[in-house]
Amino acid sequence: MLYISVPLGKLVRRVSRLRGGGSALPGLVVEKIDPGFMQRTLATLPHGVAVVSGTNGKTTTTKMVVELLESQGLKVFTNRTGSNFTRGVAAALLGEVDWRGRLTADVAVLELDEAHAVHFVNRVPPRYSLLLNVLRDQLDRFGEIDKTAQLLQHIADKTTGTVVLNREDPALPASRTPLQARTSSTSAWTTPSSAPSPTTTTCGQRPAVPPRCAPPQAARRRRTPQSGAGYCRF
């Protein structure tokens, strides 16, 4: 099946496009006949894989990261159609690889749905992950926000390099706690333009002095059980 998976997937992709839909269908087909296709292909990237996940803002953030990397001369693979399931990533790969399954790129930046990202990172541990936020959304799928936080936690645990967290979301600091022993990973703390310069700490640690809040009319300090400290929220 290994030798026919890419030609067959490309054929399904072409037929699907002619019929005007089914952007994820080719990925579903290739996943069925060649489960190792995605892992095998992405493993060839010299700078690895970056995963972008969270409740809101995935598409916009992914596009921004891709533009920034491309402006530095890197060739970036991404799932541009916005199909953020694993089959969507596989379908996007089929559009970029040659007939022998070779991908010409330096790094992959992938937008992934929180639940499907868990399945993806089990197959392809990312080198970088960017976790955006935890909000009440799609309650029929995820229930309360604790479940969403657990999904993002799993993504962070599987990341082999750098985990970037949104400091402004009080639900995300909980995802740092189990990472204390991982000295190879760092957590970038985003800082509003009116606050002091950003602080970089080892995952699981917090700055000794939390960033100062701007004047009351511009910001408010909030203490949460998850963070155990006050953070500026804008």
Strand-helix topology:
Blueprint (H helix, E strand, L loop, with lengths): L1 H17 L6 H9 L3 H6 L6 E5 L4 H14 L4 E3 L7 H11 L10 E5 L2 H10 L4 E4 L7 H4 L2 H14 L3 E4 L20 E4 L10 E3 L17 E4 L6 E4 L1
Parallel strand pairs: 1-3, 1-4, 2-3, 4-5, 5-6
Antiparallel strand pairs: 6-7, 8-9
Helix pairs in contact: 1-2, 2-5, 6-8
Give a concise summary.
This protein is an alpha/beta fold.
Task: Give descriptors for this structure.
9 strands, disordered C terminus, 234 residues, alpha/beta, two-stranded antiparallel sheet, seven-stranded mixed sheet
Would you give an account of this structure?
The protein is an alpha/beta fold and 234 residues long. 36% of the residues lie in helices and 15% in strands. It is built from eight helices and nine strands. The protein has a seven-stranded mixed beta sheet with strand order 2-3-1-4-5-6-7, sandwiched between helices. A hairpin with a 6-residue loop joins strand 8 and strand 9. Helix 6 runs parallel beside helix 8. It is globular and about 45 Å long. It starts with a helix and ends with a strand. The C terminus is likely disordered.
User: How many helical elements?
Assistant: 8
- Kindly estimate the percentage of residues that lie in beta strands according to DSSP: 15-25%
Main sheet properties: 7 strands, mixed
Structural class: alpha/beta
Structure summary, number of beta strands: 9
Helix and strand string, N-terminal first? HHHEHEHEHEHHEEEEE
Q: How helix-rich are the residues, as a percent range?
A: 25-40%
Strands side by side in the biggest sheet = 2-3-1-4-5-6-7
Net shape: globular
| Global Rg | 19 Å
Mean pLDDT: 75
The N- to C-terminal Cα distance equals: 53 Å
Low-pLDDT windows of residues: 180-234
